[in-house]
Specification:
Layout: H1 20-45, H2 55-78, H3 82-101, H4 103-106, H5 108-125, H6 128-146, H7 153-176, E1 180-182, H8 185-212, H9 214-236, E2 240-242, H10 245-266, H11 271-284, H12 306-315, H13 319-327, H14 343-352, E3 362-365, E4 370-373, H15 377-387, E5 399-401, E6 411-413
Helix pairs in contact: 1-2, 2-3, 3-5, 3-8, 7-8, 7-10, 8-9, 9-10
Length: about 425
Amino acid sequence: MTDPQAPVAAPGVTRPRRPVAVIALALVTGLGGLLEIAVAAAVLVTPVQGDDAGVPTAVTLALGIAGLALLTLAVTLWRGSNGARLLLTALLAFRVLYALYQAGESGIGAAATVVAVAGASLALAWSPSAHAWFQGDRERELSHAIHASPRTVRGRATRAAQLAVQALLVWATIGITPGVTADGWIAGLAAGVAVGVVTWLLQPVWLRLASRFGWAGTLVTALGANVVTVGLALWLAPGVDVANVGWALVASWVLTILMTLVTWLFSVGSYDYLLVHATRSALRGDRPEPDGLPGMLIIQLDGVSAPLLENEIRAGNLPTVSRWIRSGSHRWTEWTARVPSTTPVSQAGILHGSNENIPAFRWWDRELGRMLVANVPADAALIEERISDGRGLLADGGVSISNLFSGDAPRSFLTMSGMRGGDRS
């Protein structure tokens, strides 16, 4: 059933007008395709004698296929295909890699021309107006929900550093793996960039496969995605030779091990490492001495049903809770969550005594005219402002740790509603 009050598109409303950047991108791509076909025709009619007599046929075939591919991309770009934009971006990236690799043979001028044309096309494809038009309203809302944190200069610099480290690790992988060779350090670094480009291009494919086929798709993705990505990238990278599929598999394992090691080294000082260390300390029994002050600790096990909890208690998998219940010092009872049974609804009721006007985990707020998502810091703060009366469950000296809402606690750590504006204390 549909909500009769939900906003609907007016009759006759069409997609926004095509931006100038998209028009220019489609025209440039189409002209590039026509140029490739024209060059192929010129090669075909040029007479060649001797041992090179068969060369025009191969060159003509390659150029003709490239020209038709660019014409197809031009048409799909004109029609607004975001997939065509991603594919064109990957093709331009590999053209730049090959041009830079061959700069020593063909000259800096030829490489500079390729880089300039590719750079102009990429600037058109990823300009703000083109990006908004290719994404569409639905993709833009989903992207905002998934990537809630603002894109800062620091974040972009971190991403660039990660890509640079990945390129160096691919170079090291080539040096370690006997069945993979590179012509030189430029080819090794180009292979690193190629792995990044192929990973970025194929990521939606692996996610779609995993989501469509459930656990089987996830298993296939986990086992094959890295091999296919690394193998394809090394095969496409200029100046890199892979002996066979087996060595591509070995190279993917080596790269995974190196990436895992470097990730661990860089995360030693992060909050993730702190959390792991604290968990290990708790499991070893390294706990502080009690101070004798009265208090109550409330822990929410998100998504645990009453039958599952009862089975785990009886099986002895929750020894502390089992001991409490069997000794008679505590008792347990089933609690039925209201509909919808989601975390923000439940936490709002427990911590603030009100869960009014929270219909789901994410919903379209008509008053604000935008999407509200409970695990976005600014949205969580807004939801808490609506339901809080200043006398929440934790108002009297309580502490909120890793919740969506604070319960009006004077001290909050890792609480979503208190993380807005960069305050992540």
